[in-house]
């Protein structure tokens, strides 16, 4: 057991307190609070003057899948030709030795949901992982955590002979896929023994409510299409990116949706992100949407997720909401809040030691801990 | 028309920070520090807020790679040939790119607009102020400000085996071939019987004559070395652009005082040639004494986040003053306008920013932007 003492602690699911004590044993938080007694003989780590927050949870990442200077040889995010790649599983594309995981640890991200890309109308299964490890299966927190779908520009760019050419074409493909999967399910239920189809099996997981459909949508009309498709199917879903969300905040707020907002700090590289606005997260939050701030790594280098939080906060997202949008809300959205996302008794000891208050450039992350192990230590400049 | 900014926490960059004001007349800074405020002057009371020179994006594709537009707005790389010194940024940059509005809102008052890095020599550059206009000519403060060139991955990726260059040595050979031709064209142009006009070679004349810098895109340490080698062979005036692995050759860069525009550092290592990208290594270059400014390579990272980049450079151990200088005076010197912009001094252009708080802090806003003595943005009127 080890005791971390003296820091200002933001548990996220409870108010912050100064001079906190956190007892960590066997990778888990035993106790956390201001009045926790340190048992005799326990090793203590003095964090006086420091700030401790939970390890951040990035609900939309392509860590281990492409980017970071690895070139075409390790581009493993979009199964082509599509447009329906429902049978693939992101677990099979992730390289734990990819340098993006080191970037995650440096950036204070201890848990990620890794998505297939958005090149296909149906992209495949997402899963949740810790950002430390050698074997991807050992890194998994939960799998699968969703089925990836995409609307808007990207599926239209596909080179497959069946790739959609228009937005209505993409929507029709998604409807058709779920309709045929439902038919497949009915045949199975009626013991008609249809040919096994992994893609339809994954659709059934969505249709039965086991996992959500996670829909890439930037432009306002694409977001509305996502709601139309998913509500007609009566399935759980959330919006990935949600770039134009602030233009229809009330519409989304009524639905108590979760939006994975990001990548932050980026430019308007394509038409569907032409309305990108730094106030998006704040306006969505104010309207009642559950907001997660995401990197979409490598599109925002995960090392700068905390800076993105700072920008969202500066543009009106309240401090507590910003911290939650980087920790507990994404953990809930992914379905791993029983283990991560806040500092509470029994949860994994995933936490960050900061030099000062969060969201300031000059409060760098000094250490990142995953399950009680220090996995990143800042070198003093 | 006079404008006075009073009660400021002044960061002139060229002199130590302190309390004081600025008096501006006819677009120029008249007085700095302890100013007298004429009765006729319009007054902005800074109420103790920080005031800095306008921020400068030294390597920028605004107007050439437009925001939120597809191929229709991409006018940065003339990919018809790897040798296009005769194309000019002024003919490609659209002043209606939204980027310039966001620049005004973020205190980015000037930027060097540059062709992309697909070509070995990509075209003529210019420096523009971020003023609102539909005529690019009205934004220009310096043209040409340099000639864009590129080594490394991009030219060989764009051209490759089908027409070349396909390798780094091919990149260098294409550059040498044309510099050699241009040098010969220059010699003949001075003679009695001048050669027939050649637009490509004519465009290279100011480069081989050392009248404008060749600004060479290079990330990897070996590309940096190649740039210096070719510069020596042809006695060129050069600057280095990006310089991601400059920390590996920092002593050499410092010794030769090569101007470097370093960045974009706030992105992942998007290409193999960007291995080592990050502010820790930028800080190493700074500590080694490299002559450098920061760039976001807008829109790779939006130019309006330049103060954030400087904040992260500070977090990596560089002093506040040096971090601020890296996006003001050092950037001005890099683009060839050190005499006109980049610091708050009498006689310089009145490009000034009033900040809501520490300009390099994530939570601060640009409150007022002044370009050439005119207020071009006020946050209180914008609803931001």
Structure description:
- The complex is a heterodimer of chains A (381) and B (384).
- Chain A has 381 residues and is an alpha/beta fold.
- Chain A has two domains: 1-55 and 341-381, Urease, subunit C, domain 1 (Roll), CATH 2.30.40.10; 56-340, TIM Barrel (Alpha-Beta Barrel), CATH 3.20.20.
- Chain A is built from eleven helices and 16 strands.
- In chain A, strands 1, 2, 3, 4, 5, 14, 15 and 16 form an eight-stranded mixed beta sheet that branches. An eight-stranded mixed beta sheet of chain A has the order 6-7-8-9-10-11-12-13.
- The model of chain A has no long low-confidence stretch (mean pLDDT 95).
- Chain B is of the alpha/beta class and 384 residues long.
- Chain B has two domains: 1-53 and 343-384, Urease, subunit C, domain 1 (Roll), CATH 2.30.40.10; 55-341, Metal-dependent hydrolases (TIM Barrel, Alpha-Beta Barrel), CATH 3.20.20.140.
- In chain B, strands 1, 2, 3, 4, 5, 14, 15 and 16 form an eight-stranded mixed beta sheet that branches. In chain B, strands 6-7-8-9-10-11-12-13 form an eight-stranded mixed beta sheet.
- In chain B, strand 2 (18-25) and strand 3 (28-33) form a beta hairpin.
- In chain B, helix 4 (168-189) packs across helix 5.
- Chain B starts with a strand and ends with a helix.
- The A-B interface holds A 67-71, 99-100, 103, 265-271, 273-276, 297-298, 301-304, 307, 310-311, 313-314, 359-362, 364, 379-381 and B 67-70, 98, 266-275, 278, 280, 283, 298-302, 305, 308, 311-312, 314-317, 360-365.
Keywords:
heterodimer; A: 381 residues; alpha/beta; Urease, subunit C, domain 1; TIM Barrel; eight-stranded mixed beta sheet; 25% strand; globular; B: alpha/beta; 2 domains; 12 helices
